[in-house]
Amino acid sequence: MDMSIAALSVDLNLAKTQQELGVSVLKMAMEAEKSGVEEALEVVGSLDPALGQNLDVTA
User: Among candidates 12, 8, 38, 15, which has minimal Cα distance to 23?
Assistant: First the structure.
C-alpha cells in the first residue's frame, strides 16, 4: 500500500509540473503576441492619415 501512495504522489507532482510548464509556455506566447500587436499599432499610428484619400485615375 505504501508503494501505491508513493506512486500516486509522484504522478500528482508530475501532473502539477506539466501544468505549470503549460501555463508558462502559454504566458510566453501571450507576451510575444502582445509585443507583436504593440509594434503593429506603432506602425499604423505613424502612417500619414491622408494616405489613400486621393486616387489618380488618369493615364
Answer: 15
The three grid cell numbers given for residue 58, joined into one nine-digit string: 488618369
The one-character DSSP state at 47 is S
Tell me which H or E stretch contains 21: helix 2-45
- Whole-angstrom Cα distance, residue 32 to residue 21? 17
Show pLDDT as tens, one digit a residue, over the chain (59 residues). Answer: 556 988 899 999 999 999 999 999 999 999 999 999 999 988 888 888 887 788 888 87
- Minimal CA–CA distance to 51: which of 59, 23, 43, 18? 43
